[in-house]
Amino acid sequence: MLKNKKIYFIIGIITVLIFLIFFIKNNYKNFDTGHNMSNKNIEEIEKYILNISSYKAKASIEVQSNKNLNKYVVLQEYTKPNISKQTVLEPSNIEGIEIIYDGNDLKINNTKLNLSTIYKDYEYIVDNNFSLESFINDYTDTSNTKKYEENEEYVLEAQIENNKYMKNKKLYIDKKTAKPTKLTIQDINEKNIVYILYNEITVNITN
After folding, report:
1. What are phi and psi of 189, to 5 degrees?
2. C or N terminus of the chain, fewer CB within 10 Å?
3. Which residue, 114, 130, 138, is CA-closest to 73?
4. Is the pLDDT of residue 145 over 60?
């Protein structure tokens, strides 16, 4: 009887050990290949950013004109190739304004006033410089690009041709997470005219 108990006890321990080994192995594999970006080099991060298929971001945007500094908080959503939505959260006087492009038509909603305007067969401002996909398009389309490290971030930089007001774009990316942290746009005099801070961002949304 005692001998049988010892056998059952040993079998139980072996079963638990096998389970733990299987569990740790699979979870480590998933972590290493699915979520850990800290071991990626700048070329791999660049490829990852340029192949973003969708994202959702809450961004603070500062736009510097000749006289004023305008500040906005917007919710940006994008799905490749050209489905996008921007919702203004701040300032309060334009809160709730939605700009939606479905690939063909542009729709502008004023949710406070329950008003809507639709522009049929609209060639969307893919050069909407407040969006991440606009940067990706510019970076891909121009041959004048740079990539380098700056502090704890990687930087992708694109020189825009034939646009002295928006001549240079820089996207800053966290080394560990590969998530964009900010986007700056400079004029021909290297003055920041647009500064976008990504307060929250989720990339390659699957649901």
Report:
1. -95, 10
2. C
3. 130
4. yes
